[in-house]
Amino acid sequence: ALKIVTIGGGSSYTPEIIEGFIQKKLDGLLPIKEIHLVDIEAGKEKLEIVGGLAKRMVEKAGAEIEIHLTLDRKAALEGAAFVTTQFRVGLLPARIRDEKIPLKYDLIGQETNGAGGAMKALRTIPVILDICKDMEELCPDAWLINFTNPSGIITETVLKHSSIKVVGLCNIPIGIVNKIAKLYETDAANVSVEFSGLNHFVFGKNIYVNGKEVTREVIEKIKDGTEISAKNIPNFSFPADVLDAIGMIPAGYLKYYYTREKMLADCKRAAAEEGTRGEVVTQTEKELFELYKDKELAIKPKQLEERGGAHYSEAAVNLIDSIYNGDGKIHYVNVRNNGTLPELPDNTAIECNCVVTHRGALPVTVGKLETSIRGQISLMKAYEELVIEAGVTGDYAAALKALTINPLVNDSDKARAVLQDMLWANQDYLPQF
Ligand code: NAD
Ligand code: G6P
Ligand code: MN
Q1: What's the whole-number average pLDDT of the chain?
Q2: d(Cα 418, Cα 315) in Å, to the nearest integer?
């Protein structure tokens, strides 16, 4: 019988993961006995509302899973088999600061990229390290399935600084596969894409649909701006000549890097008109929680699909299924590089196709990186390593170097100014500084 713990259980995404677990239990794939949704005082009300819906969902489905709601993380972790993390340190107000402060310095304001992404990492690293310490004591053999962003950086922090087995997740690769399946009116199982890169900096190549190589054809199909990734990224088309030149499908987040000026202009426009994404999501979340309160509701509501992370449970729950049952399926996840991308250090995290067994996720090598991408990824990885160093030790110099080389900052005067502003604004969440 499995005990599963979800940290950040008050998330509006929780009905999705619960729906996934219910299905796996009903299909006889995961013998889940109890799910513990863990949150903190600040998230108590959300936890109670979404936890109530989770209980109704389980009951309606007849899944016989106990749902426990708690603020006591240690008690929840004791004896857990799988721990999933979906918490947001500082909640949405901190995200909105990450999005707005960089704009003051004419820099892109985004929750996982550039200065905002670095700040989210610095807030999150102390918490994930605490969670790992608790796990080392209370469930040392459990798998940590991390969703908390920046997912690649957080996964690498765990790989480097704890003994806990971890796999990092993102819905972008699976979103690309699903979208290609839709373009070809076929099932996602008939689509094969070789991903390699870093989280939110990943490229898909060698695309096959029903056994036929279609990479260039897919590139043609998305040139008109057909949105291939998540709901939270502005729907501009990727420059067609760049798509031709690299011959791969870039994650939507790469628009921030390849078309930085246009994306910066759009960040500014959005902040002035509809609000930053964090402000928009604050409203979406309010509406979702109003729905969740409805005692008649016992399924995951359709409106959840408006969130950028929609369908993440598909990735999380199937991954847990593959680890538990050792089925050897391919998943697109964040793992230790181990020489898979020889350009990057072995002990860092990469996002790529992995074969998943009882032993975890084993990366598949898909060949060398194209030259321009090798250059960019080496730089991005150095940035990530420096953010981790700063997050773990509170070293200001490491943080300054990280922002100085980040392609969305790339100027030491701006890096210093935005870093000092952000460190000041986040002091409640930075015990290491
Ligand atoms: P959210 O704002 O709803 O936060 C989720 C919960 O975390 C809240 O209830 C909050 O109270 C709780 N929390 C905050 N600090 C905590 C702590 N120290 N311990 C336990 N719980 C804590 O956030 P969300 O929109 O559901 O997103 C949650 C996280 O998942 C974010 O980091 C987000 O970036 C990430 N996310 C990742 C992906 C992906 O592709 N990897 C997709 C969606 C969301
Ligand atoms: C995408 C990303 C996630 C991110 C989410 C944001 O799916 O892969 O890592 O957290 O979108 O969505 P939101 O609705 O919160 O803007
Ligand atoms: Mn993601």
Answers
A1: 96
A2: 35
